[in-house]
Write a structure and sequence with these properties.
The protein has 235 residues and is mainly alpha-helical. It has two domains: 16-82, Winged helix-like DNA-binding domain superfamily/Winged helix DNA-binding domain (Arc Repressor Mutant, subunit A); 87-234, Up-down Bundle (Four Helix Bundle (Hemerythrin (Met), subunit A)), CATH 1.20.120.530. The protein has helices at 20-33, 45-52, 56-68, 87-110, 115-124, 135-151, 156-173, 180-198, 202-234; strands at 42-43, 72-75, 79-82. The chain is elongated, with a radius of gyration of 19 Å.
């Protein structure tokens, strides 16, 4: 696929951190994502500072940022803990995401001016030979697909909430692109959603979008639990 078809990266881990705090943030977050730091694990600032070879001030800034995003929890007089995976909360976030994105799909199906559709079609309505195969890249494109749908609705508050949801579920959602079958399914399902919106079939687009997100939610839960099981056995 040509470079012009690739959306801007949306995962903060992929951009080059500018400060020591940004570097520490990116490295710790990657450790959480890779389950090097397991849900429920505890660690002190001194341990992390030594492990990352960074001073306490930028480290604390990174830890506080990760706490605000829900990845870590502070434990007074003890240190820090990797937040346990709360699938009930993830389910609620996915439910909210469905509501926002279905509203956006209906809006797009009815809108007169729809430049976002052409942009998304250039990425997702491509021959099989031009499809991306790298899971991380597809994950970035997938986030951009759903974000562009919401942004195109013109509702800035909905777009803001959607960005927050995206950040909070990324820890499990990214795992949906670790298997080639799921990558192929993502292309096929996005294509069907785009065609329904283009043909102004709002009800059909909402049905397809809801099924797409629900299936992704089930897949990532299964993959996450399997990865946790394997990581604990190897610990």
């Amino acid at each position: 696929m040509s470079a012009s078809r690739e959306p801007a990266a949306v995962l903060p881990l992929d951009s080059a951190p500018a400060t020591l705090a940004d570097q520490a943030y990116a490295r710790i977050k990657q450790m959480v994502f890779d389950f090097t730091l397991m849900p429920g694990d505890r660690c002190s600032e001194s341990e992390l500072a030594q492990r990352l070879e960074v001073s306490r001030t930028p480290l604390r800034q990174a830890l506080q940022r990760l706490e605000r995003e829900g990845f870590l929890q502070v434990m007074p007089k003890i240190g820090w803990q990797v937040a346990p995976l709360d699938f009930d909360t993830f389910d609620e976030l996915y439910d909210l995401r469905v509501l926002i994105e279905c509203h956006a799909a209906q809006h797009l199906a009815e809108a007169e001016d729809r430049p976002a559709l052409a942009e998304l079609a250039d990425i997702w309505l491509v021959p099989a030979a031009e499809r991306l195969a790298d899971g991380a890249e597809v994950g970035r494109c997938d986030e951009q697909f759903h974000a562009r749908l919401v942004q195109a609705s013109g509702n800035r508050e909905m777009a803001r909430v959607h960005r927050e949801i995206t950040e909070r579920i990324r820890i499990i959602r990214r795992l949906d692109f670790t298997k080639s079958a799921r990558i192929e399914a993502t292309y096929d399902e996005h294509a069907r959603i785009l065609r329904a919106i283009t043909r102004r079939r709002g009800d059909e687009a909402q049905r397809l979008l809801r099924a797409h997100i629900e299936q992704s939610k089930l897949e990532v839960r299964h993959i996450t639990l399997d990865m946790l099981y394997r990581a604990r056995r190897q610990a």
